[in-house]
Specification:
Strand content of chain B: 15-25%
Oligomer: heterodimer
Number of helices of chain B: 3
Distance between the termini of chain B: 16 Å
Number of strands of chain A: 20
Bound molecules: iron/sulfur cluster
Order of helices and strands of chain B: EHEEEHEEHEEE
Shape of chain A: globular
Largest sheet of chain A: 6 strands, mixed
Distance between the termini of chain A: 36 Å
Number of helices of chain A: 26
Shape of chain B: globular
Helix content of chain A: 40-55%
Helix content of chain B: 10-25%
Structural class of chain B: alpha+beta
Strand order of the largest sheet of chain B: 1-9
Radius of gyration of chain A: 23 Å
Largest interface: A-B, 44 and 31 residues
Chain lengths: 591, 138
């Protein structure tokens, strides 16, 4: 299982056949993000559209997946329907360990199935099955049926899409094992375009342990740090939802389409409120003893005589921001109710919530009416938001089809670009200041996790574009290495460089351990290189006017500084792919 | 003698740390399958988790079904010992187990809990415990 190359399963949905390919580059790219980029370079087509059947959908894991705790994520790499550029999205669940124990470092899925299909694979089998009968089925019923069709409860991972993916919404996610998602940038539509409803991965292999005595020792140390110290308690206690209160206090929580950054109504949707009133239990990704997944419940009366049904919904900071404060919904149970609909439709919750916030303001301002929205939209009206989510998922009419492609696509048609909360894609919930707006807007994944821009804002109020860019650029390298490992980013407090190096050495990856910085640099450059080849241009990304209007604890946004920062960060990103920079990392530009 | 009991599975978060520990420390393997304890969701994750683990039946149906004596009852307190070198991998033990606690790997080698308790310290939620075998059996 420890190998100096990558073992990759390449499946062609057109023929229903696959082949196992050995790919060199373990010591140069490590795995995860790096492997995803490497495989896109090999199998992708920069010059063809995202829905070209030949475009690959790639899932990759890291060198330590299965060997250490919290090495529990999978990277999905693809050409995004959102902007037709190279993109990446991460998820946990059981996907990573299932791929590991099926003995692959990555899956590459190409081609298009003739009818809606499900790919099933494991150590001893590979099959593409017709599941046309699942057409239009929501994420829950799809999961249930796939579970009963394929054996292996507990040791397999089920990835699937809902109606949004089948309808090619640029906000469609891939659901991983019920509570986790490849959320951002539309990977679900890539599955939809391939006629691929689900992927069932059976991790049924077992492997010899690494021989070194060090391995057992370091495993024990890492495991203890993850569980016995209070290092990780913020993640399993209130979880990321604890941030709602904190960011609201800091005037950095987007409310009602970012018309405000703070509101008294926060008391209905704090992390504590969710924990006290709605929390059923915690769950974990396979291989993670921390257990940060918080599962709340919704309960609905569906008939008189007290006939109730209930469902379980996983919540986190981001989903609560997107369907709570951003939509002006301030009752924890109602927020969970909207999340539940988003989940069923197979939409990315952040993108979907933020897009509906834009739609609500557009409706209030009279840019769209019920002719477009079918139902009236108003901040706080959870019931109608649930319906709107269904309309988005099913691409009910022209308006919802456009909205499903992004707020700015809808705004180009109906007006209201100024108040679209888009930073590369629909924003994450950190209205912390200029560093975050620019970092998310221009960053590789358009994620607050590309670099710590949001945390820089929270700690500093200096307006020094050079200083911020130095920070963003250097922070990104370490994260690119971690997402190549592919560790959960919550583990980064424990997996400091020295610890990672020891872990890698204990299992025989000495060369990776010795070159972590260089690998981080190379992976980062490789990702950007492909991104540029597929059309990225920092100058073309604009930061909507809404961001100029808001106030945080630092005061009003400074438009001049924002512009300067944006220009400088864009320039720094371009530098990363100069001939010289690429050459120094052993990478070449494609002609 | 002591036996392992999965007495508080309502607390389980599905991390599989227990299975990894058993595979690693008892069977010297890296796996979430080839272990004395395996975690399954009983019908999707929303139903919570159950542990597939030896209940230390006495008499033990798996031992009774074994044609070679490779699977043998422990002297006292329930539970079995599996002798690899006597095993012909016929799978009868797994078939006979009423709770699916014996796992056959891809080469039909059986894996069963030996009630050593090494998994217990790796469970972050104290779902598992090692108890004197006359207690904890209900
Ligand atoms: S598989 Fe081995 S232990 Fe099990 S019944 Fe057959 S011979 Fe006995
Ligand atoms: S008690 Fe020992 S043999 Fe049984 S599951 Fe735990 S670690 Fe494995
Ligand atoms: S270690 Fe504990 S919490 Fe984790 S899967 Fe096993 S029983 Fe469940």
């Amino acid at each position: 299982m420890i190998r100096d190359y990558f073992r990759v399963l390449v499946v062609d949905l057109g023929s229903g056949k696959g082949r196992v390919v050995k790919v060199d580059g373990r010591n140069e790219f490590a795995g995860g993000s790096g492997l995803g980029a490497l495989l896109f370079e090999k199998y992708g087509h920069a010059d063809r559209a995202w829905d070209d059947p030949d475009q690959p959908l790639i899932f990759s894991i890291g060198p330590l997946t299965g060997l250490f705790p919290l090495m529990s994520k999978t990277v999905c790499s693809f050409k995004s329907p959102y902007h037709d550029q190279f993109a990446e999205s991460h998820a946990g669940g059981r996907s990573a360990l299932a791929i590991r124990f099926a003995d692959y470092d990555a899956l590459v899925i190409t081609g298009r199935a003739e009818r809606l299909s499900c790919l099933s694979l494991g150590m001893k089998h590979l099959e593409v099955k017709d599941v046309q009968f699942l057409a239009g089925k929501d994420v829950f019923s799809t999961g249930k049926i796939l579970r009963s069709m394929f054996p292996g409860s507990g040791h397999r991972s089920i990835l699937r899409i809902g109606p949004a993916g089948e309808n090619l919404s640029a906000m469609a996610c891939i659901n991983a094992d019920t509570y986790r998602h490849f959320g951002r940038l539309g990977s679900g539509a890539v599955m939809g375009a391939k006629n691929l409803k689900g992927i069932v991965i059976q991790g049924d292999g077992s492997f010899a342990l690494p021989e070194s005595k060090e391995y057992a020792k370091i495993y024990q140390q890492v495991y203890e740090k993850m569980t016995a110290t209070d290092m990780m308690s913020k993640y399993h206690n209130l979880g990321t939802a604890a941030n709602l209160d904190a960011l609201n206090e800091l005037e950095s929580l987007p409310w009602r389409n970012l018309q405000a950054t703070k509101d008294e109504e926060i008391s209905g949707i704090t992390g504590k409120k969710f924990a006290d009133d709605t929390l059923l239990r915690n769950a974990a990704c396979a291989g993670c003893p921390v257990g940060c997944i918080h599962i709340g419940f919704v309960r609905e009366k569906f008939m008189e005589d007290n006939q109730y049904l209930y469902r379980q919904v996983a919540y986190d900071y981001e989903p609560i921001f997107a369907t709570g404060s951003m939509l002006g919904v301030t009752d924890a149970f109602k927020v969970l109710g909207i999340m539940d609909e988003v989940e069923k439709a197979g939409l990315d919750v952040m993108s979907g919530g933020v897009a509906l916030a834009w739609a609500t303001e557009a409706y209030e301002k009279g840019l769209v009416s019920e002719t477009e929205t079918i139902i009236p939209l108003a901040f706080g009206d959870a019931e109608n938001y649930k319906k709107a989510v269904q309309y988005m998922g099913s691409a009910e009419n022209e308006f919802y089809t456009a909205l499903g492609k992004g707020s700015l696509v809808a705004a180009a048609k109906y007006g209201g670009e100024d108040f679209a909360c888009v930073l590369g894609q629909e924003m994450a919930g950190y209205a912390t200041g200029e560093a975050f707006y620019v970092a998310e807007g221009l960053g590789f994944r358009h994620s607050h996790l590309d670099s710590g821009g949001y945390s820089w804002d929270q700690k500093n109020d200096r307006k020094d574009a050079d200083e911020v860019c130095d920070f963003l650029i250097s922070d990104e390298t370490g994260r690119a290495f971690l997402t190549s490992m592919v560790s959960c980013l919550f583990g980064r407090g424990v997996y400091k460089d020295e610890v990672l190096a020891e872990c890698l050495k204990s299992v025989g990856y000495d060369e990776i351990a010795e070159n972590m910085d260089l690998i981080g640099e190379r992976v980062r450059a490789m990702r950007w290189k492909i991104r540029f080849e597929t059309g990225y241009d920092p100058q073309k990304i604009s930061i909507p006017k809404r961001y100029h209007e808001i106030t945080t604890w630092k005061g009003k946004t400074d438009p001049e500084y924002l512009e300067k920062l944006k220009y400088e960060y864009g320039r720094r990103i371009c530098e990363l792919v100069s001939d010289e920079a690429l050459g120094g990392l052993g990478l070449k530009k494609n002609e | 003698m002591k036996t392992l009991t999965a007495s508080r599975m309502e607390r389980c978060i599905g991390c599989h740390s227990c299975s990894f520990a058993c595979a690693r420390l008892v069977h010297k393997l890296l796996s979430w399958n080839t272990a004395g304890i395996r975690i399954a969701s009983s019908g999707g994750l929303s139903t919570g988790f159950m542990a597939k683990v030896c209940l230390a039946c006495s008499p033990a149906p798996c031992a009774e079904a074994c044609p070679t004596g490779a699977m043998k009852a422990r002297k006292k307190g329930g539970g079995v010992i599996h002798k690899k070198d006597l095993c012909i991998r016929c799978g009868k033990c797994a078939e006979a187990c009423p709770v699916d606690a014996i796992y056959l790997d891809l080469k039909d080698r059986p894996y069963v809990c030996i009630h050593c308790g090494r998994c217990v310290e790796f469970c972050p939620h104290e779902c598992l415990e090692l108890v004197e075998s006359d207690k904890g059996r209900d």
